[in-house]
Amino acid sequence: MPHVEEAVQLPRDFEGFGEAGHDCQWPNNARIAISFILNYEEGGERSWYDGDDISEPYLWEKGSSGGIKPGGRYLNAEQDFEYGSRVGCWRIFRLMKEFGWNMTLWAIAKAMERNPEFAKACVREGHEMGVHGLRWLEFWDASVDEDKKYIKDSFEALEQATGERPVGFYFGRGTPNTHALVPIVLKEMGQKLLYSSECYNDDVPYWVDLPWEANIPAEEREGMLMVPYNYDCNDGKFHMAPGFMTSAGQTYESYLKSTFDMLYREGGRMMNIPMHSRIVGKAGRAEALRNFMKYISEKEGVWVATRRDIAKHYREKFPYKPGSRAGGSA
């Protein structure tokens, strides 16, 4: 059973920004901020090679029909992950370079260690490294002390593997306490957290108050900036049910365009495009992704940015103010 540490729990918020909504006032009067995120996990997943009792059964090409093969190697699964690190990541890298855009990587430290050429190229081109864990494993039932050590080790290992100090995170597989423990751990390490993406509940960034700061003077509180993530535009849905219901890229492309059109019309919003090297990095789906990229490149007022830059803009425009989701005026 997972342990819930009451002292660090963030309250649920069912109201958000309400009827008025919230305009993030993106740079240069852009109508929308676009965040491409590459979940880079290949080499950090479960495998016989790393002492696990199975090869990773989740989010690879055979989907739910792939099955679990305990007690040994399942080369089919292993090699689909290897496709991501050998081919798919570079295909996505080239697409970003073609359009002159930068992405954020939810980077597994072990995966980055095993593909140093890709890690070096991403940092060189200005892509952001965000923490996604030491390996791509569940740690749902970790104790508070184990959780804090895993967080610390993840930040340090990713910096060591890439040469870049991460300022944001999305573990996705943590305990009920992980998201709130990160700013505590980083403070103990003498580092600052720029943002968390451990949330799925909005289309715009927002501030949360940290419960352990309640008893210190308001001017000393830091809060935590949330830059929401999503599942609905995630290419992982090619291998989920219900998902895009086909392995072809056309449904994916259509859904991305529909999401963009709505958010673009509303204005002041943010759109996430979560990607995986072994999924949308396949040629047919990458072509669908490129069609979407071309579509938005032809629109006025589109800001494609890393989450680091989105967070920096929001902090400057809407600095933290205790008790306010939108912060104060800059």
TrEMBL record:
Q: Where is the NodB homology domain?
A: 75-305
Question: Entry's PROSITE patterns?
Answer: NODB (PS51677)
A single GO BP: carbohydrate metabolic process
Q: Which SUPFAM superfamilies match?
A: Glycoside hydrolase/deacetylase (SSF88713)
> The organism sits in which domain of life?
Eukaryota
Q: Name one GO molecular function term.
A: hydrolase activity, acting on carbon-nitrogen (but not peptide) bonds
Supply the name of the protein.
Chitin deacetylase 1
Q: Top-down, what is the taxonomic lineage of the species of origin? A: Eukaryota, Fungi, Dikarya, Ascomycota, Pezizomycotina
